[in-house]
Amino acid sequence: MQNRHVVELLPSGKSFQAADQLLLDAMLASGLAVPFSCRRGACGSCKVKVVSGHYRAKQLAPDAPAPCYPLAADEMLLCQSHACSDMRLEIPGWSLDTPARDVSARVISKRKLSVDIVELVLLPAQPLEVRAGQYVRFRLDDGDSRCFSVANLPAQDQGQCVFHIRQVRGGVFSEGILAALQVGDVLTLEGPVGACTWQHEDERPVVLFATGTGYAGIKPMLLTALDRDAEVTLYWGNSAPEDFYDTEFLEQASRAHPRFKWHRVLSADARVQQVAQAQPHNWSDSQIYACGNSAMINQVRETCLASGVQAHRFVAEAFVPSGALPPASSLKALDPVLEKVGPRYSLDGMLAAREQTVRALAAIAEQLKVGMTTAQALDMASQTLQSMGASHTWHPTYIRFGDDTIRTPRQGIDPQRTLRATDIAVVDLGPVWDGYEGDYGDTFVFGEHRLYEDCVKALHQVFDETRDAWHRGLTGRELYDFAEQSAHTKGWRLERNLAGHRIADFPHALFGQDKLAEIEIVPSEMVWVLEIQLCHPTEPVGAFFEDILIGEQRSR
Q: Which of 52, 292, 401, 449 counts the highest number of beta carbons within 10 A?
């Protein structure tokens, strides 16, 4: 019988048993939804701190790439490690202790906070263990849902949950349901969910950023900081003076807590990060939380990191509007097994991540210079993604010059290969933006070279034709058969080792690792990535393009 070791997870106190399997597999087998993605030791999603115990590294196959994610001396990756004894692992920020569930909740009160902001107070039938910063989903009758931050600490309010909801013209919930709700009505909630939560126990100063009703996600952080008598500063941005709907509470709190300051920031005057920069913060020692629109999150993150904030001390949640969501029937059409998604999945979130990744790719391509080595290009790409607000990458960034363009990501490249005056280059990105995965790649030609230009032209033609075939109802397997034939007719070879993959709210690997080229269903929109890599039949010339399968009306 194999030895079984008990692994305790901190701070949740949960534990699981591990025999000889990888710790990640043992944890998943125990029903714990641990974040992970690449399984290759590259993304860092399953990083933990080793508090006590012993482990050994995974034995790699001879042709397998070595783990490349940088680790501190007391850190390890669950996907690359086996337990050799009982262990204690620290997992800061993970919500293992608050499993999501469905619960009915009764309306206790409803009142206007401003012209377009409504405070809704609900009492769940069973207490919800909500961590400061988490949100819940309001289940709708048609199977759709809407997400709202819990704007209080329910444990301090007899279990009641408070929500700040903006009334949006045409909003399915805010206009169609909220207006009709009466005291005593019952709603169905799903949650709590979200990892943008209070994540530190020390005495360091806290700086909070919010825009609009992003304040609802920040207020529990503020309440927690006030309870701990921490030094805390809030920057709240809005379009008009009347949008500061919680001024009375904030003014009262600032009088009662000398270590609390808050700043109202009108968008016509400045941005929240600009006002913060003018204040005497010790940024290198501060813990940052931000909640609001994605543009604010990106700008604040860039400013804070440039000012000396440690990357792991910047925690954020971006709000995405629900008004642009497609009909619920689109989400219902997802295959329940092959296309399962997580509780935060939204088409708006995926579209925002895609848009930001496209911008990042363009920014990186503009910085590629003749004479630059592949290693230098990768360093530049990493800095660019960080400055634009990527929390990390779910797969390593791939940049390939010249002869290396025929290689797949799992094949080695020459890091010292230089970009020539006339050359072809591939850039393949997988950044994570505020919990949503981006995945986009393209090929660029430097100088004038007919064969390189023909390669890129054929690449985009094959991709477009294959996407059009998807609109006609081809299965995943049929799509790649189609792409292979399309490439062949143009005089090129399709690299079938790149066969497309799932994508969703991070990490997509939790919901399946199926290849697009192997599925026998018609793939749904916004949950699959179509990858096309072409190679010349005889010459070391290749090109790569990938994008989420997305309707033409959305991609323009």
A: 292
Residue 527 DSSP code: S
Q: Is the pLDDT of residue 345 over 80?
A: no
Q: How far is it, in rounded angstroms, from Cα 210 to Cα 41?
A: 34
Residue 104 near residue 188, CB atoms below 8 Å: yes
For CA atoms 183, 319, 138, 13, the dihedral sign is: negative
Angle, vertex CA 295, rays to CA 544 and CA 135, nearest 5: 100
Residue 484, token pair as written in the block: 């292979």
DSSP state of 369: -
Reported pTM = 0.50
Here the tokens at position 404 are 């290396």
Whether residue 307 contacts residue 277, with contact meaning beta carbons closer than 8 Å, is answered with yes
Task: Find the helix or strand (DSSP H, E) in which 5 lies.
Answer: strand 5-10
H helices present in 144-214, as ranges: none
> Looking at domain 101-193, does it have CATH number 2.40.30.10?
yes
Question: What is 328-555's CATH topology?
Answer: Creatine Amidinohydrolase (3.90.230)
Strand partners, 297: none
AA identity, residue 156: Q
Listed in sequence order, the residues at least 6 apart from 243 whose beta carbon sits closer than 8 Å to its beta carbon are 114, 117, 212
List the Cα angle 523/525/529 in 5-degree steps: 70
Is it true that 206-319 and 328-555 share their CATH fold?
A: no
Where b means 16+ CB within 10 Å and e means fewer, 62-81 reads: eeeeebebebeeeebbbbbb
Taking the C-alpha atoms of residue 134 and residue 330, their distance in angstroms, rounded to an integer, is 26
What values do phi and psi take at 204, rounded to 5?
-70, 155
**Residue 470 above 50 pLDDT?**
yes
Q: What is the mean pLDDT of residues 296-314?
A: 83
What is the fold, at CATH topology level, of the domain defined by 5-90? Ubiquitin-like (UB roll) (3.10.20)
The CATH number of 206-319 is 3.40.50.80
For the chain, percent helix, then strand, then coil, each to nearest 5?
A: 30, 30, 45
Quick: pLDDT tens for 89-100. Answer: 987 655 555 555
Is residue 162 within 8 Å of 130, Cβ to Cβ? no
- Distance CA(283)–CA(352), nearest Å, equals 28
Whole-number Å distance between alpha carbons of 437 and 506: 6
The rounded distance, in Å, linking the Cα atoms of 488 and 537 is 10
Q: What is the pLDDT of residues 494-513, one digit of tens each?
A: 998 889 998 877 677 777 77
Beta-bridged to residue 112, according to DSSP, are 118
Q: Where are the domains of the chain?
A: 5-90, 101-193, 206-319, 328-555
- Give residue-wise pLDDT tens across range 258-268: 999 999 999 88
